[in-house]
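Format is chain and fold; as here:
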Amino acid sequence: MISRLSIIKLYQYRQFLMTLLVTLSVASCVTINIYFPAAAAQKAAEKIVDDVLGPDQAHPAAKEQGEQKNNNDQSYYLNPSERVILSITDFFIPAAQAAGQANLSIDSPAIRSLQASMKKRQTKLRPFYQSGAVGFTNNALIAVVNASALSIKQRSTVKKLVSAENRDRMNLYKEIANANGHPEWQADIQKTFAKTWIQKISAGWMYQTSAGQWKKK
């Protein structure tokens, strides 16, 4: 005769197998497609923008509260079977996510060259950022905002600087996508940079909102 305790253990074992099956199924599904690595792209954009603008101009984004460790370890309250399930989940899901999400490389001769070119140009562009004559657009480029703040001689210079900067920026976004083997990521990379440039600019510089309006930060 099967005891009540045996029935409970049998039920728990069955639940364990069902959970394990679901976990493995989810893990296998996650690895099917490689999607745009948004988090990696954000870090890459921040690194490049900080370098291009310089430490005096780049303003790091606010740190997320997620940096604080959660000391409430819920696994302490789990029974042995549940702990095994949790361990299996912790092993398979991150591995599946790592397989499904590619790292974003920004280390190539072309990228380094473009980054250096942009960094060098900022010395000439910075006075025009500060005066409000040139601002950061909502599509990760720059544009003349207030031409009346420029002299006739300056207008020609600024026009060339803006054109050269935008050319390098567009090539940068393209090269990052190509360097990672996904040319189709270029638009997503550009969107990521668009937000990052504006987040990093100094107070008083001009930027374009998503609605197309120009504002001073």
About this structure: Residues 152-179 form the longest helix (28 residues).
